[in-house]
Amino acid sequence: MSSGHLNAQYNLRLPDELKQKIAESAQELNRSMNADIVARLEESFGQKFGDLESVPTEELMKELAKRLDGFSIVAVK
Predict the structure, then answer these.
(1) I need a labelling partner for 70 at 20 to 30 A (CA). Which of 23, 35, 37, 52 fits?
(2) Closest CA to 34 of 57, 6, 11, 52
(3) Predicted TM-score (pTM) of this structure
(4) How far apart are CA 24 and CA 16, in angstroms?
(5) What's the pLDDT tens digit per position in 38-73?
(6) CA-CA distances (angstroms) from residue 49 to 4, 11, 54, 57, 74?
(7) In this predicted structure, what is the pLDDT of residue 19?
């Protein structure tokens, strides 16, 4: 039986506290909770390969160290 939606559906269980955060964010941005979740997921995938300027340098260094296995990073402030 078809629901009439063209997009895939997925039943998601999440903690009440996280659901409340999503609801508040969606309301602030004047969009549905579903749209907020989709936008956040798309953004998270985009950061991995896309706009590295928005990723803090320390996070990039940690990721590099993890990938180079055996190296360590010391952040100096």
Answers:
(1) 52
(2) 11
(3) 0.54
(4) 12
(5) 998 888 776 555 566 777 888 878 877 777 776 666
(6) 33, 27, 11, 15, 24
(7) 94
Tell me how far apart the alpha carbons of residues 69 and 10 are, in angstroms, rounded to a whole number.
36
| Sequence letter at residue 74 | V
Query: How many Å apart are CA 18 and CA 52, to the nearest integer?
Result: 26
**DSSP-assigned states of every residue in 16-77:** HHHHHHHHHHHHHTTS-HHHHHHHHHHHHHHHHHS-GGGS-HHHHHHHHHHHTSS-------
CA atoms of 8 and 76, how far apart (whole Å) = 46
